[in-house]
Amino acid sequence: MHIVCRRSALHLGRGSILAGVGKERGIHSSCPRRTVMPAWVIDKYGSNDVLRYNENVLFPIIHYPNEVIIKVHAASLNPIDVNMRSGYGAKSLKMSRDPLHIKTSGSEFPLILGRDVSGTIMECGLDVKYFKPGDQVWAAVPPWKQGTFAEFVVASVNEVSFKPKSLSHTEAASIPYVTLTAWAALVNSCGLSKEKCPGKRVLILGSSGGIGTSSIQLLKAWGAHVTAVCSGNAFTLMKDLGADDIIDYKVAPLEDQLKTRDQFDVILDNIGGTNEALALQFLKPWSGATYVTLVTPFLYNNDQLGIADGMMRTGVTLASKVFKHYYKGIHYRWGFFTPSGPALDEVGELVDAGKIRPVIEEIFPFSKVPQAFQKLEAGHARGKTVIQVTDPEK
Questions:
Q1: Which of 192, 331, 347, 361 could cross-link 383 (Cys pair, CB 3.0–4.6 Å)?
Q2: Which residues form the Enoyl reductase (ER) domain (predicted)?
């Protein structure tokens, strides 16, 4: 393992499940003059009919010297895209885009959704030394930036990593956002790592979606014992990904099934609701065990109460839960997606070593983005929904 300078920080040097592969390419992405580009945009928040294909979206430009322009070959859908389309988190994300309130009200439109990207770097800012035009890269662009359902996207160099050589762009696009969300929960919130995982017992609630499948693979690559909770029709997938124990929550009450298992060091909750109170009973007390949930009231509170009051209520809620469980010797945490090129570097090494693979449920052509939203909105995902945007050979 080698160490090279990167992103003003230290950089530690570095098969798929496919179903329902789409082949239709009704919309062709071409922009010879590079002044406009095709993209799927929304001009207001709402249901699926607000999605609009626009061939004349202004070509993105580099505003900061640490940014790159990426030609998008593939992107993928995440639940946050459906939620953002409907307006969830609009107040918080608008503030993140314009913290000084310089722009006018409603200036987030037209808004391009999409967080994952796998593609080719076309242009680099003046301070970018680690990447160059022509490099094949992947990234997860944060929600406060314009997204990846477009022919080109701008990203900070700190968000970008070299694409694993063993994956196609279509496969690679399925991984960044969900894996970085899992990373944020397990590494940033729980303090897990490849050195600390061996021997740890981890319970994953909601294990068959994108974050769940990513979490299983990351934890197994690091030597943890993983118990996955899902419905019976996801058992084969869970076994293929390496889960040590699988619980079908439909065959008997989850509480009764968990009582027959040893207690856990970490619980990752992708579901929330009543599962939170139930799950907390099954952590090892007075051992530094951690419960982390990705279902938080942060954006909801801000949407309902405004930024100031929403953040105050969120802080009170989190503090009360942290202190309540701290006195039982249990750490209570919230997990949030965090963009990170360096984390993707490590994930890429695991991919090329065969320890993490893409889990793709269906692939849609760029012309069928609304249908992809409909599919994801129907629920019960078994992996990721991917969008083929441009042909990497063109």
A1: 361
A2: 46-387
Please state, in angstroms and rounded to a whole number, the distance separating the CA atoms of residues 346 and 333. 24
Say which DSSP state 194 is in.
Answer: T
Whether the pTM exceeds 0.85: the reply is: yes
Q: Where are the domains of the chain?
A: 15-175+359-388, 178-334
Determine the pLDDT at residue 130: 95
Look at the alpha carbons of 224, 227, 231, 237 in this order and tell me if their dihedral is positive or negative: positive
Distance CA 157, CA 342 (A): 10
Beta-bridge partners for 338: none
Count CA atoms within 13 Å of residue 288 on its CB side: 6
| pLDDT for the residue 246 | 98
CA nearest to 175, candidates 75, 256, 270, 99: 75
Residue 32 DSSP code: T
How is domain 178-334 classified at the CATH fold level? Rossmann fold (3.40.50)
Q: Which residues of the chain have pLDDT under 50?
A: 1-32, 99-105
Q: What local confidence, expressed as pLDDT, does residue 95 receive?
A: 60
For residue 330, count CB atoms less than 10 angstroms from its CB and return exposed for 0-12, middle for 13-18, buried for 19 or more.
buried
**Cβ contacts of 185 within 8 Å, gap of 6 or more:** 215, 268, 292, 294, 333, 335
Question: How many angstroms separate the CA atoms of 13 and 6, rounded?
Answer: 10
| Residue 21: predicted pLDDT | 42
Q: List C-alpha distances in Å: 361 to 17, 51, 241, 336, 383.
A: 8, 22, 14, 24, 5
Q: Which residues contact residue 26 at a Cβ distance below 8 angstroms, ignoring those fewer than 6 apart?
A: 365, 367, 368
Residue 301: other Cβ atoms inside 10 A: 22
According to CATH, what is the number of the domain 15-175+359-388?
3.90.180.10
How far is the C-alpha of 246 from the C-alpha of 229, rounded, in Å? Answer: 6
pLDDT digits (tens, 9 = 90+) for 351-377: 999 999 999 999 999 999 999 999 999
